[in-house]
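Hi V.,

You were right to ask for the full record rather than a summary. Here it is.
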Amino acid sequence: MSRKFALLFGGAFIFVPGIFALVGIALAINQRHVIKTYQPIQAIVLSRHIATISDRHGDTYKPVVRYEYTINGHRYTSQRVNIMQDSASYSWAERVVDRYPVGRKCKAWYDPQRPQEAVLDRTASFIPSGLMLFTLPFFAVGFGVLRSGLSRPQFNLHPESQSPPWFTLLPEANLHSRLRSWLILALVVDGAFAMILWNYFSIATPPYGWLVDSVTAVVCALAVVPLVLVWRIWRLGGLVQDGQLELAGESLAAGTATNCRISQTYRRAVTIKKVTLTLQCRRIQTTGNTTNEDFPWKHEQIVGEAAQAAAGEELTWTSAILPPAGWPGSTMPNSGANPDYRYYLKLQVSFAGAPGYSERFIVQLTSDASASLMPPSAAVFASAGSSIDMQ
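Predicted structure:
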């Protein structure tokens, strides 16, 4: 994912829902102010009718009740029925106005600071809370896109070499950074869920209605998801350390076999079911204002399986990678090339009775300038003396 795409897509998923969230916050503040500060007063109903509200979605109906009340000898009139001044179906509006016959005395609620402001029904509406809850999944997606696009390291043209001829490849992320990101997301999203629901239930009175009960149940279920992901990463971090992937050279070369070495230390005794390594090519193509990304060529190769690791033990697997001569080389950073080619080696380790480990490592691929950009029909991974064709 390019940084430009992350900024545009992730920013849109935060900015646009942010406007709706601000509207919901303003409505929630006003509603709480009405319920907590307005004082009761006796009023007399002067008139009533149903107003039609028309827009491109059709007609809705709003109950309008005009009433009069007296405060300190001053008479005031208002026609605000409920806090949100809702409009809905005609039958709903009819039921509301039927509760207020002309000439009947009823209880109203007025603002002591602004006595001209009053309301007949100060029952809490779920609309502000629902509006804020609706925006939270979009915020989560926007956060994920921004983190994915902006926090990834750039391609490293010169990997570190601590034990020549082995060069250590750069991972996109590690267990610690993933745990931190998901923990922050879980705290922010679940904290927002809790505050929004608390704000409503602290001022609402039961029964709340089937819609409120249903939305609350869904929200509680969604709030568990980031916590489960945090728990899985934390559990995995207690089982293994981050894997290390090394190449016998600074980069891969199209048409040339390059040895690679995979190593991982295990904090506890564990049964390893399978270790796989996948060579991936990510292609970014820009046409006008449209950017498309795909993985046109990739292959998953088993490099180890059915192994036992003791607590504190480090296991190592070796493999040889032979990218085909026809594959295009990696695009240089900021070259402006179109298409833009990026290569990864994806390491996956599956365990018996524990979450699996997965990480992508950035790798450079050099290619003969005269080679065709179309890939040949096969490439070869060689491991433990065997070879498997990659289609």
